[in-house]
Design a protein that fits this description.
The structure holds two protein chains of two kinds. Chain A is mainly α. The N and C termini of chain A lie far apart (62 Å). Chain B has a single domain, classed as Cytochrome c oxidase, subunit III, four-helix bundle (Four Helix Bundle (Hemerythrin (Met), subunit A), Up-down Bundle). In chain B, helix 1 packs parallel to helix 6 and helix 3 packs antiparallel against helix 6. Chains A and B meet through helix 1, helix 2 and helix 3 of A and helix 1, helix 3 and helix 6 of B. Chain B: Catalyzes quinol oxidation with the concomitant reduction of oxygen to water. Chain B: InterPro entries: Cyt_c/ubiquinol_Oxase_su3, Cyt_c_oxidase-like_su3, Cyt_c_oxidase_su3-like_sf, Cyt_c_oxidase_su3_a-hlx, QoxC, Ubiquinol_oxase_su3_dom. Chain B: Its EC number is 1.10.3.-.
Chain lengths: 127, 201
């Protein structure tokens, strides 16, 4: 072996620093900042996706040359992530957005119901 | 397995068996992505349905969650360093960094168990509401994966102490490193979607 003679793997150090910075940024946005809730959620979700990318590409050897791309089945990874996105977005779309679960006066879950009720009633009347 | 064995490149990729095993493990990870997606979807749909139990806003504390996140992020980094040492043929470095990774993993688990016990004391348990069922199943499945990973790593450490670096042992360590980094990916989403959003909304 002995082809990686570097004592410290720079890409790992950079990846670690990046993930620490992004975690702190996300925590700051959620806890300290005065941004509107929608923007906070968009911002921290983008940071989470970027951090996942750091792990996958900088730590998990997905694109390294020595091993010929790391034997990663790209098509299956793509299908896994696509299925994940469909599952989460689809569940939220069919189960939560635009529906009133009948918990009036209950805590939580009442932010988007009323503004979206009107147009969603027509769409989902077949259910 | 195919007889051709490469003379260069990382040990774990030199045989056909090694490459196919790593490929198979990536397929397993793709399936894990889908498993966790179902749990995230369940959690998201049940969000806010806390019934008479406390709300996440009341219970989640930024401090402990950040500590857990940093423990896991650091363990992912040290796990990467362990594989780097393995690639340099340094068994001692590999074992040292792997033990550091394990220690950080146990730290994470300790905080998670403390957190769960605390929530149950406050009246939020698996059975108290739909929301908390979703929460405990999602976070608990991740915690179970971390627990399994620590046991797996201990067994591999025993094996490498006995056999040294071979095509087979380095492949096994490479695969547990993929697993460990992957658990960090899942945790980033739990941290963001469960804890941070739970503290915002």
């Amino acid at each position: 072996m002995a082809k990686t003679d570097k004592k410290v793997p720079m890409n790992h150090v950079i990846g670690f620093a990046l993930s620490l910075i992004m975690t702190l940024l996300a925590a700051w946005a959620a806890i300290q900042s005065d941004l509107p809730v929608t923007w906070v959620i968009v911002f921290i979700m983008v940071l989470a996706l970027l951090q996942a990318g750091v792990q996958l590409f900088m730590f998990m050897h997905m694109t390294e040359k020595e091993s010929g791309g790391g034997a990663v089945p790209w098509n299956m990874m793509f299908h896994g992530f696509a299925l994940a996105a469909i599952l989460v977005a689809g569940s939220l779309f069919t189960m939560s957005f635009g529906f009133d679960h009948g918990d009036h006066g209950d805590h939580g879950g009442e932010h988007e119901e009323h503004m979206e009720m009107d147009d969603s009633e027509g769409d989902h009347s077949g259910h | 397995m195919a007889a051709e064995e490469l003379k260069t490149g990382p040990l774990e990729y030199r045989t056909q068996e090694g490459r196919m095993t790593i490929l198979g493990f990536w397929i397993f990870l793709a399936a894990e992505v889908v498993l966790f997606a179902t749990l995230f979807a369940t959690y998201a749909v049940l969000y806010g349905r806390t019934a008479d139990a406390p709300t996440p806003m009341e219970l989640f504390e930024p401090g402990i969650v950040l500590v857990m996140t940093f423990l896991l992020l650091t363990s992912s980094f040290t796990c990467g360093l362990a594989i780097h040492q393995m690639r340099r043929g340094n068994v001692k470095g590999l074992m040292t960094w792997m033990i550091v990774t394990l220690a950080l993993g146990f730290g994470f688990l300790g905080f998670e168990i403390y957190e769960f016990v605390h929530y149950v004391h406050e009246g939020a348990s698996l059975t108290s509401s739909a929301y908390w069922s979703g929460f405990f199943v999602l976070a608990g499945t991740h915690g179970l994966h971390v627990t399994l990973g620590t046991g797996w790593a201990i067994l591999l450490l025993i094996q490498i102490a006995r056999r040294g670096l071979t095509n087979v042992t380095s492949r096994k360590f490479f695969i547990i490193s993929l697993y460990w980094h992957f658990l960090d990916v899942i945790w980033i989403f739990i941290f963001t979607c469960v804890y941070l959003i739970g503290m915002v909304i």
